[in-house]
């Protein structure tokens, strides 16, 4: 058993997890299923829960006996779990990307992976092969009549929400140029300026970085249409996985990170392995005015930001002349080196994610940073109706230990006002994935509804879906999925 690590910061706790239990979730998905009925193994499915949970993540980790170097290199597979009047059905399907089709046919990796997966054949096979394999594995969202499977270094794949069939690469009705990339992290404005909008971006990076900010109408006559489009160029390399929105701003945190492409070009490292944190250097906050807000058309503001590396933001909101940005900070960029096996990582040696709050004064450009919670967390969200607005509650995946790093094994509801917390724990042999909060339709309470998450049950080597009461995190229902699903990435909920 591994003891969770504390790096001398706090006293150790007698919490243990078995790394093999955690790693046992990483196996290939062998089957594609359609509309399989699922029965609860514990509790009952709430009748009011009506819609579909779509979840994306790597479904192929090994081909021809060779493993991906990092699970982020695994081909995207969508799991869809539909709820209708207490009945539940399950479907899953791989996204038919060009890379997936070619590698299925070849029975081996024919592309290099961004996170270090190599083709067989050593130096000669890998050097100078700079093609990107769009693996479409990071997020899945509803947009118009289609789902979009997102991967941030290339364009989105359109998917049929009913059959999960892949229609192909989408330009979003001509908005994206061929080969233009689109972020995997759109933000959904719940109606800051009347109608709901999807706010998203694409980034082209190098010595300078250009962000294309786009807003799409989601309702009314212009539903699906691009209603705002601007480009802003900033100095420096940018690795922007996520961003945040408020009624007047989009907020980007340019991590203090450098990119040395030489080992990538020569086939020794994947592109993402060539990123290095610039120790002691601060990031920059790039604030871009939204076209629908009071600073429309103005130039962006660039403000010296905090130290540390951020993949994900929780939320942002405005308070007079201040912008509040809540994000999960790592001490530096966590990378899996060319000689490491991802299934044998030492959690003690990689930094944990810590939820922090930056208060940005947009008049004097000062930034104040405070830790909200010391406990390792990831995949945090607020009620989607409070996106970009002051939210009191958040839900997130956490490690069992109260400080230090560990795999994600529990779900926490955190009251952002008074730090009160509620925890549902899947440990010691259960491992959680991104929790999704689903608000009760027509409820005015910020926290009324459910939290759902896929759980890796290592004792039985199965995947389960749990439905928790979102107010107190009590388990309402547990369902066994008909296939084992590897630890995944992001998903979304679509009401019926
Ligand atoms: Co993400």
Describe the structure.
With 496 residues, the chain is mainly beta. The protein has one domain. The chain is built from 4 helices and 37 strands. Strands 4, 32, 33, 34, 35 and 36 form a 6-stranded antiparallel sheet that branches. The protein has a 5-stranded antiparallel sheet with strand order 3-9-8-5-37, with no helix packed on it. A 4-stranded antiparallel sheet has the order 10-11-12-13, with no helix packed on it. The longest helix has 9 residues, at 98-106. The chain is globular, with a radius of gyration of 21 Å. The relative contact order is 0.16. Mean pLDDT is 92; it is low at 1-14. Cobalt (II) ion is lined by residues 185, 241-242, 311-312, 490.
Helices and strands in order:
Blueprint: E1 2-3, E2 16-17, H1 19-23, E3 36-38, E4 40-43, E5 51-60, E6 62-63, E7 66-67, E8 75-84, E9 87-94, H2 98-106, H3 122-126, E10 139-143, E11 146-150, E12 157-159, E13 166-169, E14 187-189, E15 197-204, E16 208-217, E17 226-235, E18 244-245, E19 249-254, E20 257-259, H4 262-265, E21 275-277, E22 284-289, E23 301-304, E24 309-319, E25 322-330, E26 354-361, E27 367-373, E28 377-382, E29 393-399, E30 408-415, E31 421-425, E32 430-432, E33 436-439, E34 449-457, E35 462-469, E36 475-480, E37 491-495
Antiparallel strand pairs: 1-2, 3-9, 4-36, 5-8, 5-37, 6-7, 8-9, 10-11, 11-12, 12-13, 14-15, 15-16, 16-17, 18-19, 19-22, 20-21, 22-23, 24-25, 25-26, 26-27, 28-29, 29-30, 30-31, 32-34, 33-34, 34-35, 35-36
The structure holds cobalt (II) ion.
